[in-house]
Write a structure and sequence with these properties.
Order of helices and strands: HEEEHEHEHEEH
Shape: globular
Strand content: 15-25%
CATH topology of the largest domain: Glutaredoxin
Structural class: alpha/beta
Oligomer: single chain
Number of helices: 5
CATH architecture of the largest domain: 3-Layer(aba) Sandwich
CATH superfamily of the largest domain: Glutaredoxin
Length: about 220
Amino acid sequence: MLSFFKDYKYFAIVFAIISLIIVSIIYNIFDVYKPLPIYQPAMVNTEMVDSTIQYVKKYHKIADFSLTNQNGETITQDTYKDKIYVADFFFTTCQTICPIMTDHMAIIQKEIMNDPDVMLLSHSVTPVIDSVPQLKKYAIKKGVNDAKWNLVTGDKKQIYSLARKSYLAVKTDGNGDEFDMIHTENFMLIDKKRQIRGYYDGTNPEDISRLIDDIQILKEEYK
C-alpha cells in the first residue's frame, strides 16, 4: 500500500510538471493578453523619485501641468485627455543622447501617425534656451508633426517637478536653478488615466521596438 502511494506521488509530480509545460506552451502560442504593470513610486528605483513620494504604493498619476509648445500654444493635461502618450525629457542643444532619442521618437511618431489614440510629449530641461522659436526650428529639423508631437518649454521648476514627482524619470534631484540641469534617457508610456505603464531606454533600438509593441498591448485595455 505504501509503495502504491509512493508511486502515485511521483506520478503526480511528473504530471504537474508536464501540465505546467503544456500550459506555458499554449499561453505563448496563443499570445494570451498580458496587461502592462501600473508603476507606482514604491516600485521604482528610489534615486529616480522625489523623497516625498518614494513610498507611495498606489494611486500615482501624472500631475496637472501648463507648458508651451513649438507653436506657442498652451499644452495641458486636457491636450492629452483620453490619449495614450509617450513622454521624455531633452534639450535642443544636446549633442550626446538627445539626437538619438529624438530620432527614436520620430520612429514612434511614424508608427502612430494614423492612430488618433496615441501622442508624444517632449519636455525641454533647458527652457531658458529652448524658447518657442528654438523649439519650432528644432521641430522642423526633426520632422515633428504638430498634431502628434508637442515639444514643450515653460517654468523650469514645474518641468523638474514633473520629472521627479510625476514621471519618476531622473536620478539627479534638479531644483530648477539657472545652472542646474537634469537629464535622462528614459521614455515613459502613459495611459489614458495618466498612469505610468512602462519605462524604456530612449537610446536603445530594442527598447523602442518593445515600446511600440507595448502601445498595442495597452490599447487592448480600451477595446
